[in-house]
UniProtKB/TrEMBL annotation:
Residue ranges of the TM segments: none
Disordered: annotated span: 272-296
Source taxonomy: Bacteria, Pseudomonadati, Pseudomonadota, Alphaproteobacteria, Hyphomicrobiales
MF terms in GO: methyltransferase activity
Listed InterPro entries: Malonyl-ACP_OMT, Methyltransf_11, SAM-dependent_MTases_sf
Top-level taxon in the UniProt lineage: Bacteria
Gene3D superfamilies recorded: Vaccinia Virus protein VP39
Protein's recorded name: Methyltransferase domain-containing protein
Start and end residues of each Methyltransferase type domain: 58-142
Keywords: Methyltransferase, Transferase
GO biological process: methylation
Cited Pfam families: Methyltransf_11 (PF08241)
Amino acid sequence: MAIDSKQAEAPFDRDRQANLRLRWAGHGMAGASFLYDAVAAELSERLSLVQRRFEIGLEIGGYDGRLARSASSQVETMIRMAPEPRWLAEAPLAVAGDDEWLPFRDDSLDLVLAPLTLHQTNDTPGAIAQIRRALRPDGLFLAALMGGETLSELRASLIAAEAEIYGGASPRVQPFIELRDAGALLQRTGFALPVIDQERQVVRYDTMFGLMADLRAMGMANSLLARSRKPVGRRLFLRAAELYAQRFSDADGRIRATFDIIFLSGWKPHESQQKPLAPGSAKASLADALKDRSGG
């Protein structure tokens, strides 16, 4: 399928994303919250390593608000922002808004948390630049987004099956950011002391259809503008499931699904901050970096 210039600039169908999020909010992830559970716990742990109190914090997205509640022990005023008001029903302070447009003044926030939202924005650099704008000097940005080889097995199986049956393939799994590009993105948007690392989770399923059911429950079904609108029959997905099982199954017959999670950390520049190390000279882990930063 040809992609016009508008699609190239804006890969996602935001209306479809809104509908997927409504389904997600309505069904409570239907037992498929394992990725968000892991990310919320990890970001909460990483924030706890910063021995500092924040006056005003913002969580973008966050599904059920557990990360915001955990962060409240370090934040005087915690605000939640999400596109679906039902996600915000129990939030003391909440703003219903789009994660591509932050309705906050310049230099008004001390902490921004973004768990598993930014990889589905049409202008991720712009969204992160807005976060930097809204942070006060020496404010902290912590985020997690899907990256790298996420769903690579599903992508390969669908492409192979569609090429075999129809002689060509349309995008059915979105591309995800690579680790090196995520690092460049933080630098490009002007964050100081950027720290980027990646964790990989491999989840196993009985069949490809179990994986696809979880993706629908998580609101991660195909929302690409360039996706094919032509109806396809069961034959495509049955063949893709066969190829998936042939190429990506373990000895017990269960298939593997890869999820790469990229964690980002950066500070809005302030004169009190230490000078960055020369490129390629960093040795510390993320935990060490946050501990060093908190003592400054």
